[in-house]
């Protein structure tokens, strides 16, 4: 039988993004930056309106109390002679303190007020085109899932035109657009319910995308996994009727000096298995494949950006379920490469599938091995829900964390703990998958993973349990549910590594 074809059942809505030298003839709205000046709000010069029109707009904005403080959105009627229904101003705060992150957040905030508008023109790019494009695209994203036809859809702006008078902006615009599209692809994968995204369908979706992009992809099914000894992936998958997969996606440019191995956790649903999770909020475990989504999206974007660095994403995909064949506490499994693990808790499943994937990724002897996973609840206890924990070899760990902070994906270096070496020991296997106390759960998981990284390879582990999935309120350019973290960190790192000697 031919392989069935798979595609995403629904995608989040986002506006089309355009770059133009001049304002479009007619628009539904014009979006302008508003600054918090010492003597009230200030409208900077804009390629969209002449000085007289700007003065009119500023008067209207002042009349309704706009101040220009960060993320304040104010809508006023367009002045006479301007072919737009309204002008929407978004505050950027004190110009002396303006950063890319403030601009992204303000752009994201105003993007959420553009719902239903067909064409919008903006000069927000005057303060940083890349940040404005990313902020608008990521803030406007809205995922409504799978609905009956009678349900009205939330339609965001059809098209946003970034008006910039400089020619050099075309490349900056393209990089920002491709980056935002990658984040959005990762969000779409993570937002897809596990009824529709399971190892086989997920591998199928990635294969279809790889074929369309002309990228190399390898998919190991359960038979191939068994033949090659992927005991960790098989163990986690054995309690589900939906068999696991291992997917490897490669961007191999003609010119490349460095190779980067990315690895991402792909648990398409995590019930906990026999060590079952409580019912409350378990639906959020649709997001337990966020690491794999981020690394897949990164490879597709590296190819679109034509980055001169070879990148392979290794993604172990499995569904963690508690059926009659499921893995039990007390079982001993043999990972790819031969290390054995005693299972203490079947809910510590991410490290079991990642162990196999790390050994496989290490076989390619990459210059850098960077892995990311929604690995531990302890990450959120330690760092909160917006800041990823980064562990691994010191130099790469610190570099990944700093890059994350630079691009607006907060990340913080955390140590591997010497005292936990003993806690890794098992009476019946080489190591065990959980330790007997509540302390340093994120660090213990990283120490466990470190045993599977090839000798001498620089590696980093990024725990994104909190930052990859937003279960609290919308903020800036971060919607509810999938955030697409850490795609922008990884793309920034790849761009840097591509420029290394
Ligand atoms: N997928 C979870 C971690 C998680 C929890 C991600 C909440 C996002 C939100 C992971 O597989 C897990 O269950 N980890 C356990 C490990 C423990 C049993 C050692 C945890 O953190 O409780
Ligand atoms: Zn788990
Ligand atoms: Zn998990």
CATH class of the largest domain: Alpha Beta
CATH topology of the largest domain: Aminopeptidase
- Outline, from the CA principal axes? elongated
Mean pLDDT: 96
Q: Number of DSSP strands?
A: 21
Q: How many discrete structural domains?
A: 2
Which cofactors or ions or other ligands sit in this model?
ligand BES, zinc ion
Can you put this structure into words, describing what you see?
- By secondary structure, this protein is α/β, with parallel strands linked by helices.
- The chain has 2 domains: 16-166, 3-Layer(aba) Sandwich (Leucine Aminopeptidase, subunit E, domain 1), CATH 3.40.220; 204-469, Zn peptidases (Aminopeptidase).
- 32% of the residues lie in helices and 22% in strands.
- It has helices spanning 51-63, 100-111, 129-140, 169-191, 199-213, 222-228, 231-237, 290-304, 350-363, 377-383, 394-407, 441-450, 487-498; strands at 16-20, 27-37, 40-42, 73-77, 84-93, 119-122, 159-163, 216-220, 245-251, 259-264, 266-270, 310-320, 332-334, 340-342, 368-373, 388-392, 411-413, 431-432, 458-463, 469-470, 481-482.
- The strands form 4 sheets. Strands 8, 9, 10, 11, 12, 15, 16, 17 and 19 form a 9-stranded mixed beta sheet that branches. Strands 1, 2, 3, 4, 5, 6 and 7 form a 7-stranded mixed beta sheet that branches. Strands 13-14-18 form a 3-stranded mixed beta sheet.
- Helix 3 links the parallel strand 6 and strand 7 (159-163).
- The radius of gyration is 24 Å and the shape is elongated.
- It starts with 15 loop residues before the first strand and ends with a helix.
- Bound molecules: ligand BES and zinc ion (2 copies).
